[in-house]
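Trying the structure run again after the queue cleared.
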Amino acid sequence: MLIILGINMVQKMFDSGYHVEVDEVDRNEWSELLTHFQDATIHQTWSSGEVHSGEKNLSHLILKKDGDVAAMAQVTIRKVPLLNAGIATIYRGPTWRRSDKQCNTETLSRMVNALRNEYALNRGLLLRIWPNEIRGSENGIVPIFENHGFKINTSVPPYRTLLLDLSLPMEELRRNLGRTWRHHLNHAEKSNLNLREGSSNELYMTFLILLKETVARKGFIPRVDYHKYQWIQNDLPEFLKMKIMICESQGKPVSAVICSAMGDTGIYLFGATGDLGLKLNGSNLLHWCMIEWLKRKGCRWYDLGGIDPEGNPGTYEFKHGIAGNAGRDETHIGQLYVYNTARGYFLSILIDKLRSLRGTMKEQVYQIQSELLRKD
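Done. Tokens:
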């Protein structure tokens, strides 16, 4: 019944001028197409997918309307040999908000249906999607997924962040900074710090050196594989590369900030501050310079990265100082999923549980290592 319904929906797509292309695009064309969408992110780049999951585990689906690309999604596929089960994952996608066209939720509905048909119905995979959409102001986004059989996975915590509205004048953004944060920025601007910026591997290596100093001072083991993002940076075309800013004091690097700016949003990814940078408030200066750069680039929002006020209050307070009165505490709608057969679903869940168990064991190792590092 589901398969018949899927065939009927495909026919309707053709009748309305929509059609789907699966794995017919190369990496260069994919990268260029991403630049046409205001909701594009680094997580949907070919380089990110290849580094994190391997190119052979990637699939690319494009929805066209009257010959023009209307929506696109990079899908990561994990299958278990012989069991005919697996998981298809889309993170921060699909992209469907064209920068040059008015947003039309019909496009999203067609895209969601196409993804379900291809990966859940035709391939029999558990399809999981983390849409790049904010909860509470999604304008009916969740019902669109639910109309195509998707359910919200309430057991997976959604992404929470602070968004800074960059449409405000720089003077107003500065007035809206937290009082202590603005005081530290004033101090940094009087400290004769020199700014270096770009996208080179040499700048990324400088960030990694400062990161070691940060880790040693804070006494924790990083959960992020920063070297993978170095590989992503080196593989990305120049126009999609992350922005790296380094500030120096008397020629010595003291702080670093890395941001990815695609579509209408810049996303703060990583930062590192050496001991001297902490005294000179180097990170404050770099974030302020990043805000200036994002405004010149034409971005509307500065996504300050994930926040956890209870679990990581120090980082939250720093980011809240940047957001100030002009910031918005926002939460994404979370993970939605759909499947074709109960057997495939439960096999996929088993696979996911095993991977989750492995992740839990790694987390326990991180905690033990961090404890030992603090004692040393």
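Residues 1-7, 363-374 have pLDDT under 50 and may be disordered. Worth checking whether this holds up in the mutant runs.
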